[in-house]
Fold this protein.
Amino acid sequence: MNKPDSAAPAHFLANKSKIKLFGLTLDDCIKVFFGGNAVISIVVLALITYFLFREGAGFFGQNRQNILVYRQAGLEYVDFIRAEVKDHMALTRYLSDIRLRQYVYLTAEKKLSAEDANAALAGFDTFAEQYDGTVVPVRRLLSELTELATAIKEKFANNENKVQESLQLLAQNRASDAGKVAIQAVNFAEELKPIVGTLPAFKALNAEFATKLNEVLAAAPSLSGPGLGARMDRFKELTRDYVKTFSAVERDLTDWDFRREVPMRQSVAGFFLGREWQTASSWQDWYGILPLFVGSLMVSCVALLIAVPLGVGAAIYVNQIASKSEQSFIKPSIEFISAFPSVVLGFFGIAVLGQGLRAASQISWLSWIPGFPYSERLNILTAGCLLALLAVPTIFTLAEDALNNVPRAFKEASYALGATRLQTVIKIIVPASLSGIISAILLGLGRVIGETMVVLLCAGNRIAIPDFTAGLAVVTQPVHTMTGIIAQEMGEVVQGSIHYRALFMIGIALFFLSLGINYVAQGVVRRYRISIG
């Protein structure tokens, strides 16, 4: 009976790499397989980049045309007057706030009944009514001009639709049908005459408006509440400053020329620095990314303020202090959080967290917290708390890896010099792994800034830059985000439209933002590895 050749397995393994498949050895096949992953990643990245730029490339040209029509149809002219009316509305709201403060003073401090307080404010209400009525003639003119400008824009839009219809018929070789489409070019110079011709009347109305405002201010009532006299004086000062702006408005209307070209830089600046995102408007559509970017940034900052201490602190505790049994429980529990679908967390934010935070803000002994109490349950704070929950596993895992990579000799040398465990962790381990921890935080930022469902469901979806004059209370205000607007509106837009391309431009901005964050994080990791090496 022959003994098994013990050298056979070794001989087989030694020659296994020589087996060829399509002219490639097994080693070559393994290299191709795993090396191909990098090639696939590059190809996918290139395809995504190409697709984003292909769909979003025409936005700035379309936006320039959009702004040009806004000017040629007279909407820009009318908006000069509209801005004047809006400023008056803002002053009226300021006056209403003064009235509310006086009412609270009378009922809370003077102990008057609601009926007696309103009776005491009768003179103020008469003053407020007269102040609000001063703008009525200008507002009436604005309404007339709005109708005229809207009609011009609609006429232009109908003409453009007929042009497109004619081109489609020509593309279908139906020249006879295309010739039947009645296309009439819009003569903007003629169409705008009724609008521009109202300038003398507007100047006369403005003079009358200023006179009435000064007359009403002269009869302003005095207030007894603390600080309300100063607020009324401030209101008078703001109104006088407002009257001084009339000449600037009239000058803008006089100098306005519908023939003036719209440079491409205005289209680009309007997107990146624009403060309005307004679509499907009966007046004018605007595509400004700034309020969406600020919303994303605010939510991400709140998320990081919560997630960084929790994630990094948990990583330090688990890696340096916790016992084996604690590690076996804490680490899987934190990493399990990443298994939660974000839409489930969004529902939790709507039904539980948002409602709970709003209820907590109503507790009297918590009123010292900035922004408490508040009424909007879906806001920056709610979305930030949920995004923090999503970011903690990422920060925890990467930070713990950074702590693990610190050479054991560092710790042993620290102990040998008589340092305690806490001193070793704070002064040796954490500083040595700081670059890796920073990388973990940056990747956590990339995780939260690209999140969609949570912010769409829990951020409040109000497209406006938050009021930063509120201080820390700004986190209780609702916002919209870049990811949220794409998810909300992409399914409703017409392919190839300016709205469609604007959403892809937001996608491009997000793409480069995430790419930049990851590039910085990878740079920190490389620096960390070099310093450790």
About this structure: Residues 136-171 form the longest helix (36 residues). The radius of gyration is 33 Å. The chain has three domains: 23-57, 72-263, 300-482+512-532.
